C-alpha cells in the first residue's frame, strides 16, 4: 500500500509541475525560452511512460502521464508553431 501512495504522490507532483509552464505559455504566447529539442524528447519519453503504465495496468502512472502528455504536447506544439513562424520571418 505504501508503494501506491508514493506513486500517487510522484504522479501528482510531476504532473502538476507542468501546469505553471503551460499556463504561462498560454497567457503570454511566448515560447522563446523553451528548448524545442528538450520538449520533443520529453514528450516522446512521457508517451513511452504512458505505454509502460498501460502495460503494467498502473492507473496512477497512466493518468499522470496522460495529463503530462497533454500539457507537454500543448507546449511542444506552440513551440513548433513559433519556431516555424520565426524561420519564415527571418527569410
Mind explaining what this structure looks like?
With 91 residues, the chain is mostly helical. It has one domain: Monooxygenase, CATH 1.20.1280.290. 85% of the residues lie in helices and 0% in strands. Helix 2 runs parallel beside helix 4 and helix 3 packs antiparallel against helix 4. The longest helix has 31 residues. The radius of gyration is 15 Å and the shape is elongated. The N and C termini lie far apart (58 Å). The mean pLDDT is 90.
Radius of gyration: 15 Å
| Beta content | under 5%
Instruction: List the secondary-structure elements in sequence, H or E.
Output: HHHH
Indicate the CATH topology: Monooxygenase
Q: Which runs of at least 5 residues are low in confidence (pLDDT < 50)?
A: none
Structural class assignment: mainly alpha
Main sheet specs? none
CATH class assignment: Mainly Alpha
Q: Helical amount among residues, as a percent range?
A: over 70%
Q: How many structural domains can be distinguished in the coordinates? A: 1
The shape, in one word, is elongated
Given the structure, what is the number of helices? Answer: 4
Mean pLDDT: 90
At CATH level 2, the architecture is Up-down Bundle
Distance between the termini: 58 Å
Number of strands: 0
Subcellular location: Membrane
Membrane topology: Multi-pass membrane protein
Protein name: SemiSWEET transporter
Pfam families: PQ-loop
Amino acid at each position: 500500500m505504501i508503494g501506491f501512495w508514493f506513486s500517487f504522490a510522484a504522479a501528482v507532483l510531476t504532473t502538476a509541475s507542468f501546469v505553471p509552464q503551460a499556463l504561462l505559455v498560454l497567457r503570454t504566447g511566448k515560447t522563446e525560452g523553451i528548448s524545442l529539442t528538450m520538449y520533443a524528447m520529453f514528450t516522446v519519453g512521457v508517451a513511452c511512460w504512458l505505454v509502460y503504465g498501460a502495460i503494467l495496468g498502473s492507473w496512477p502512472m497512466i493518468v499522470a502521464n496522460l495529463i503530462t502528455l497533454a500539457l507537454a504536447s500543448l507546449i511542444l506544439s506552440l513551440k513548433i508553431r513559433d519556431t516555424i513562424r520565426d524561420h519564415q520571418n527571418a527569410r
